[in-house]
Design brief:
The chain is of the alpha+beta class. It contains 21 helices and nine strands. A six-stranded mixed barrel has the order 2-3-7-4-6-5, surrounded by four helices. Strand 5 and strand 6 form a beta hairpin. The two termini are about 35 Å apart.
Length: about 650
Amino acid sequence: MTLFNIAFTNMRKNFGQFSMYLGSLILSVLIYFTFVSLAYTKSIGVIFDKWQIGGQGVFMAAAIVLILFVAFFVFYSSNYFTRSRKRELGLYSLLGLRKAQIGRIIFYENLMMHVVAVVSGIVIGVFFSKFFSMLLFRIMDLSIDSGFTFSVSAILSTMLVFGIILIVTTANGYWIVYRHSMVELFKADVREKNPAKGSLTLSIVGVLLIGFGYFLATRPIEDSIFWTENFFFASMLFVLFGVILGTWLVLRFLFPYIVYKLFLRKSFFYSGTNILTLTWLRYRMKKTAGTLTMIAVLSATTLTIIGTLSSFYTNIISFAESSNPNSYQTAWSTETEREEILEAIRESKSHTLVYHEAVDVFKGEVIDKVDESIPYRDQRMSQFSVMGLSDYNRLATKLDNDSKRIKYLADGKAIFLSPVGGFENKQRADLWMKDPYMVTFKNNPVKYSLEIKAVYNHEVFNTDMVSSTLVVNDRIYREISQKTMPKHIDIFQVTNEDRAEVLDHRIQKIIGGNPYMYNLSMSSFYSNYHMMSTLIGVILYIGMFIGIVFFAATGSIIYFKQITEAVDEKPRFEVLQKLGMSQKEVRSVIAKQVLPVFLIPLILGICHSVAALIGLSVNLLYSVGAPVMISTTIYTVFFIVYYFVCVNTYTKMVASGDD
């Protein structure tokens, strides 16, 4: 029998042990190939060029990050997987195979798995390429037909990357074989001679480090002394490394301490199969602290990435809508241009005119200039666009978007319209309203003292053309208009404005300017909204896939570690089954001793991510509740699936099959 046949037969007969590693490889290939394919897809490239957001560069940058992480993940998994088979490698040596031949068997096994993974990942990627493109377009809120993608460049890139990973993992297998003698290969991993008792003092230190890290992470940056310019970098490092160190201390000393205390409680220790579970945990928790810390950090990173990006997506899409209430808005348009725009709308088969309004606004400058040397949180507004009360109420009524109506404004009083008000710290809104503003207008000698009495978190103009709007009463407005040159705004509201690309092009040509690009003379809901949705959609899409890779890495690391330990624990369970323990009882013991390995880092990871997202919500006033709950629930469900798969595989490896 040739060495290749030995490797093939071994994989075929022990496919269950190889399946999880192979599945991880296929997932890694699929995600990397998907990213590279999207970067090379012409239809997606056209979209990125259209909005000039450099999306393809973002995809390639994400692909590089994925290469580094996937390489680490595959190497880590391969290392655990090879170590779990040390007895098998020792048996080869006992049968007379030289170390070079054993290394070749490892190479053939790796080669077969990588070939299967690369072929399967690419085939699945091509087959589901239409789905992945549709998902991307759906997130970007674009109605574009997508087809199957077959990129030769993406295939070659994938083969090159995983070919290099194959070489590295095979070299690691050779190193393990050459490093250990035959006797060492047959030995189980050395168990700790002295079981861990933990330390209450160091446990408290760990809890305090995590607690203070949470405290810093959830502080408002504008108000906290810890986040001033002098302490910002130090605070950031403490939150990052302090929480990681605290996590390690908790896992290394607190949980062994709890297990030790349960061990001393004889009523609990001798109840059922607790004697087996507690004994295993006492000898394993100390050794697994580093791995569990990494799993907790990976879980926190995964949940934070997905929660942050999904929250950003939800809130920025909402902001894109609120900051662009009008379908089209033009400035200084001529009568001819207005008629051409109205004619274009009438000729459109997909859109109808809802209303056409015209308003004059006046740009005012604040006399007391902003000191830009002071922090942004302490700066007041430097200029405003002023509109009249009647015009505001008329537009607010037409918009029908829950805009507040204003019944009365006294002289010198104003309402500030700020679509970003919901994202601003409350302290900043108080700063706007603290003292009156002294405002002047071009070619107008009169100075107006205007005090903001309220801030409305919505607009009646598209903010890329008219921003920082102040509403004043009609008397002050007429007085300003008599001596100040206005900025004339025409508003055209149409139906189906989010699907108005063709109409958008035609109106852009009438006004002049490049479609999809910023234009001083025109503001378009379609262009503004889709520019934001495309950019944030790409980022969310990338974040989702990176989160999936992180999750796969997290579950696989636990799985391979437990399978490695299953090989060492098999003799113990064989003895227990000879003494009369049933397979059902074996499964119960395994489920109990594996549960903490999954549950503890999951709980810590969720707590870490919740603290990070609370800090995000506090400082940006973003609503993170729903996206975080959804992502955390999905993550937990899949973690539970990993747990049951691990328990089943562990049981099959150690149980003799006799009930």
